[in-house]
Amino acid sequence: MSEFWKTTSLILLTVVLSLAVGKTERDISAVLGMTALCIAACTAVTILEPVLDYLVELQRLFNLPDGLVSVLLKAVGIALVAELSATVCTDAGNASLGKMLQILGGAAVLSLSVPMFRTLMTIIKEIL
């Protein structure tokens, strides 16, 4: 959990620096924000690694079809990236593009979920 606290501190420091520099140097402020964003994303992946390992273990334990967990993880990843990108667009003053990214993310998740729903229906048919 120390990664969480370090990254949170870095983000808060970035916010303070961006506020101090942002009035005169908007470009530097934007680069600071994007750098902190990338570091936070890498930290999130590191923190979630045990969860990913557990999901793979559950897939093996319950003999779930290959790819089921990966589709679920891809859907979560798409949703998170879409939401984060939409927030960046909104903060940059382009709320309409931010909303469109949210819609695009929802469409991508829905499209990605179709094979998962088919597999789920097959499993339900086998049980019945």
Q: Which features does this protein show?
A:
about 130 residues
Summarize the structure.
The chain has 128 residues and is mostly helical. It is built from four helices and no strands.
Helix content: over 70%
In the predicted model, the low-confidence regions spanning at least 5 consecutive residues are none
Give the strand tally.
0
Residue-averaged pLDDT: 88
Strand content: under 5%
Order of helices and strands: HHHH
Give the secondary structure arrangement, pairings included.
Layout (H helix, E strand, L loop, with lengths): L1 H21 L3 H36 L6 H24 L3 H33 L1
Helix pairs in contact: 1-2, 3-4
Question: Could you characterize what this model shows?
Answer:
It is built from four helices and no strands. α1 runs antiparallel to α2. With 128 residues, the chain is an all-alpha fold. Helix content is 89%, strand content 0%. It has helices at residues 2-22, 26-61, 68-91, 95-127. It starts with a helix and ends with a helix.
